[in-house]
Amino acid sequence: MAYRALDIDSICDYLSGIEEIQAFFGTEEIEASEIGDGNLNFVYLVRAVSDPSRAVIAKQAVPYLRIAGEGFPLSRERMTYEIRALRTFKALAPDYVPDIYYSSEEMSLLVMEYLGDHVIFRTGLLEGRQYPRFAEHISSYMAKTLFHTSSLSLESSEKRALMDRFSANTQLCKLTEDFVFTFPCMEHETNDNGNVKGNPLAEMIFADMAFKERVLELKYKFMTQADALLHGDMHTGSLMVNEVETYMIDPEFAFVGPFGFDIGALLSNLIQNYIHHDIVTGNETHKLWLIETIEETLRLFAQKFVALWDATERSALMIPGLLSSESKKNYQQKFMQGILQDTVGFAGCKMARRIFGIAGVTDIRGIEDPALRAQAEQRVFEIARGFVMEYDRIGSVSEIIKRIKG
Amino acid sequence: MAYRALDIDSICDYLSGIEEIQAFFGTEEIEASEIGDGNLNFVYLVRAVSDPSRAVIAKQAVPYLRIAGEGFPLSRERMTYEIRALRTFKALAPDYVPDIYYSSEEMSLLVMEYLGDHVIFRTGLLEGRQYPRFAEHISSYMAKTLFHTSSLSLESSEKRALMDRFSANTQLCKLTEDFVFTFPCMEHETNDNGNVKGNPLAEMIFADMAFKERVLELKYKFMTQADALLHGDMHTGSLMVNEVETYMIDPEFAFVGPFGFDIGALLSNLIQNYIHHDIVTGNETHKLWLIETIEETLRLFAQKFVALWDATERSALMIPGLLSSESKKNYQQKFMQGILQDTVGFAGCKMARRIFGIAGVTDIRGIEDPALRAQAEQRVFEIARGFVMEYDRIGSVSEIIKRIKG
User: Fold this and answer.
1) Residues A103, A143: one domain?
2) pTM, rounded to two decimals
3) Which of the residues B206, B220, B325, B333 would you substitute to probe the A interface, choosing the one with the greatest number of A C-beta atoms within 10 Å?
4) Domain of A66?
5) Contact B334 A209 (CB under 8 A)
6) Is the Cβ pair B156, A185 closer than 8 Å?
7) Is B327's CB within 8 Å of A212's CB?
8) Whether residue B97 sits in one domain with residue B124
9) In this structure, is residue A350 part of a structural domain?
10) Which listed residue, of A300, B72, B183, B398, carries a Cα 20 to 30 Å from B405's Cα?
């Protein structure tokens, strides 16, 4: 089936011709509305006319950046990787990934569960809402997906086959290389230059060579360290939550990269929400919950990851009879420390890039009072710099928490 | 052109039908003889009947391990990677790679320059011969091929495309994972069990958990650290030399892996030759030359690698204006130290595996006197263990040399 771009007028007809969608809606008539929040893709909410609670999300990539228009070409192959990643993650951690009703790499089309009872995690956090089961959920999701796509679980040929399925996700990996690790650390046309001009913090960061050397060290890890299949863009806008459920969405940046990158991305976003509330709302209950959530997420992730590892006798890395069980424990401990350190380093990079880079987070860039915003940016950079400069000397979760509290 | 296995009776006819081979031999009649030293493949020397100095080497992979027979299947795809690697390396370092006259991935066939005036480097070294230009050559070869296939030289998409061309070389990568990093450290049916039985050194190694934890750390790097396109099996049997020339051959293990793996493989082989002469021949001139060669190789490699880097303004890693030139120097220094440390670690693994693993080196396993052989093995392990346990604390080439001299 050759690719063609669908629109609000053609989407329902098109979907009605697909067996899996017929199975979902039966003989019901359906209608579609466009959901405006996709930067990259067209996203439609498709419902049964007689019962709007029966609904799916249809997402199609176009061969350009939706938010910027046809003048900004971006290969629609990104949807290929989103489909592949979503299916891989769904198989490994079904509770935390939306149901997939239909997908077509040729049509760059994905039809999946409508999460009508959930909100974007960032939005909830900005409103000061707490999600008591989040740490439990996200630690399970990350432990399962990262462990089971790594050489600690897969056999050698399975791991290389997995890499193969994602290694051509070049354009989006390059976006991260440029917009996370490079441009935000220097004068660049893509930066938030309205804020950069005459800003002493920007001047300081752009001249901070010791910091940039370390950022490049982490960029190099991002480019070359093939630990596991990552979401690749695991910020609080890529999570949908409510009191009882947590879902990961939008994994179009997926590729095989360093363990610490996803966890670091999440950590950086939680910290930026903490700074937001520290400086803007002074909501102490929420701040306390955030600290606990960070602590729990990191602790539970490590615990669950090691438990999966303990249950694995044979993988590309290890076979029975090679190490004693005590020795395996030593090895695991050092390995987990390495993941924690990378997590801290990547969290630092991901925080720093939000200050002057092209894409800010609402938590900081959305602060309307310029003085408060500058104060928040200052605080983001202090933590980010500490993380980046000393990530490989961080030994524990409590050290991370101490730095966040300042 | 569908695959068919050639043999001594069909090879000349087949080659005569290929335009590139016609261009080489003109209208001369050709004849072939089988060269018996290929473990994996069939290798033929093909000459003009009237002038045997006009000759080529034709190499064809069969879908099994040649040395073991059809009962030991091994995908002939290995020749695909040998062809791709040889062509890539030839383009980057033409002086150190044989000319390629013809290749066919479909036929798993490679026709290349006959190095009739050269000997296998290991053979020369065992005879106590010295090759005054070797360090100069091999350092150029490694600097050029490793630098130009890394993210320090390539753009992001070029690097991922390169990885793509080699990422399915699964079977041979797995051989290394198993036979270098795993089986030689434990009781295993594939080991040189005639020597293992009742051997206190074997008993010691197999029980040395601290050592094996570190070997696994390096195995993990081998599996996941995608620095550059490696030869993948750079021992002294993969090099053909004479007084004035050095050629790399047999890169069928090629894949994108850690910089230090090839350099470490070479280092380990030079050290084992040093130990051979120390214990068997007492040839002090040769030992001195080996030490100088190791020193020069490592020093010149780093020098040339950095020179190529200095001449590179833009790559996946860096763009102009990001770092000051002083800062780039700091970054490079730390980076090169990382390569040196990995080199030492991998050299240690590669030495240790030669003691009891399936494939020994003649330098050690060929020592006929059992007492001398045991003494050599002891010495190999002493250095190997030091390297593996302390690779990430090694700061300089002189430290490496001190450890070799013992």
Assistant:
1) no
2) 0.96
3) B220
4) 11-113
5) no
6) no
7) yes
8) no
9) yes
10) B183
Q: What ipTM was estimated for this complex?
A: 0.96
From A112's Cα to the closest Cα of chain B, the distance in A is 30
How far apart are the C-alpha atoms of B392 and A334, rounded to whole Å?
14
Q: Into how many domains does chain A fold?
A: 2
Residues A105 and A195 in one domain: no
Q: Are residues B268 and B397 located together in one domain of the fold? A: yes
Q: Of A62, A85, A113, which residue constitutes the final position of a domain?
A: A113
Instruction: Please give the distance of CA A169 from its chain centroid, rounded to a whole number.
Output: 16
A199 occurs within a structural domain: yes
Please report which helix (H) or strand (E) contains residue A176, including its range. helix A170-181
User: Are residues B78 and B222 both part of a single domain?
Assistant: no
Residues forming beta bridges with residue B204, ordered by sequence position: none
Domain presence at residue A36: yes
Q: Which residue has the tokens 């190099």?
A: A220
Which runs of consecutive H residues, i.e. helices, occur in A26-169?
77-92, 121-126, 134-148, 156-166
CATH number, position B243 = 3.90.1200.10
Is residue B2, in this structure, part of any structural domain at all?
A: no
Put simply, whether A179 touches B (Cβ < 8 Å) is: no
**Interface membership of B318 toward A (CB under 8 Å):** yes
Q: What is the pLDDT of residues B220-231, one digit of tens each?
A: 999 999 999 999
In tens, the pLDDT along A289-329 reads 999 999 999 999 999 999 999 999 999 999 999 999 999 99
* B179: contact with A, CB 8 A cutoff: no
Nearest to A195, CA basis, from A393, A4, A45, A376: A376
CA distance A210 to A224: 22
Closest chain B residue by Cα to residue A176: B156
Domain-terminating residue out of B113, B142, B170: B113
Answer whether B281 touches A (CB < 8 Å): no
Question: Hey, what amino acid is at B133?
Answer: R
Instruction: Say yes or no to pLDDT of A66 above 90.
Output: no
Shortest CA distance from A321: residue in chain B: B186
- The reply to whether B167 touches chain A by the CB within 8 Å rule is yes
